[in-house]
Amino acid sequence: MKVLVTGGAGYIGTHTLLELLGCGHDVLVVDNYSNSSPIALQRVRKLAGRDFESLQIDIRDTEQLTEAMLEFQPQAVIHFAGLKAVGESVEQPLRYYSNNVDGSISLLLAMDKAAGHNFIFSSSATVYGAPQYLPYDEKHPVKAVNPYGSSKLMVEEILGDWCKSAPGTAAISLRYFNPVGAHTSGEIGEDPQGIPNNLMPCIAQTAVGRLPQLKVFGSDYDKRDGTGERDYIHVMDLARAHVAALDYLEQCNSFDAINIGTGKGLTVLELVKTFEQSSQQVIPLELVERRAGDLVSVYADASKASRLLNWSAELDVDAMCRDTWRWQSQNPQGYSGE
Ligand code: NAD
Ligand code: WQD
Question: Rounded to two decimals, what is the model's pTM?
Fold first, then answer.
């Protein structure tokens, strides 16, 4: 299949590109490199042993996008491009709505012009808000609690309406839980700019000495060891889920949302302990106050993905930690170290 990948130079995009290329798909990457580096794409080319085109385009530039689409004629679009820092979205809501919502509308307009009708969207478990029950299944009510989450929900609504408006269009929204890990080569991985927001990059950067210690946000939750629980999913499993969703699009002619997680919760301290074992590094840590807005527990009911996509997570937490460590220890400064 010919697949246009927006945000393909980013963390999840690069890993998915490798999976797509490995399965024989042809790709065109569109990225403005606002949170990534073209070096990441060079590494994907090397690992895949195959070349592909990449264009520096902001997805809000409908004209340039349309031109690229008319030329490439993709049979499907995978839409990763977006801003993703929750705290930043609270401080700069308009930037988030412009990038994530206007950007998605611009992409759909370009698809309409190029008669594209198959779409996969990077959504997030954050659309569920606080749990009314656990695990979260796709029928759980949705409620955004910050502009980032609202932008994801708005795009899901837009995709629903887009699918209704034209027969033959299909869109799948993959609601990712907590992506972590890296490709086993250690050549590509997560490379956050500035101080990371998420737990795994904080652990990895502490292990490599870029951060002095890990701050554990809250140790008095009503959980087995008092720390927050999440459903961490290996990025290569997540990448495979996109390939499975591409196949499923062929039989789907409407909008659908599907959770992508393992279904298992892990606490902060459990993840740190596994990381220490796999990396043979000690992670100095300090137990601090709870982080505002954090939930105690988040994990998926991933049975819909298994039923519809014939996909389930295969890689365990040891692999998540081992592969993160390989990437971080081989690239202590991320791609900028090259
Ligand atoms: P990332 O920042 O590494 O990748 C996003 C890519 O999109 C970057 O390469 C960036 O340069 C590009 N981009 C951003 N705005 C753009 C624009 N206007 N035009 C063109 N390119 C643009 O993030 P990621 O972790 O790979 O996440 C990919 C997607 O998955 C995002 O939409 C994110 O919201 C979603 N998601 C991520 C997580 C997570 O924890 N990583 C969880 C749930 C959902
Ligand atoms: C995980 C756990 C923290 C950092 C966020 C977004 C969500 C989604 C995934 C995009 C929590 C604890 C963290 C640290 C810590 N992204 N923690 N010390 O909060 O589940 O979700 O990323 O869609 O929208 O909100 O992930 O990795 O930030 O936190 O103790 O330095 O680790 O309190 O319990 P979260 P996270």
Answer: 0.98
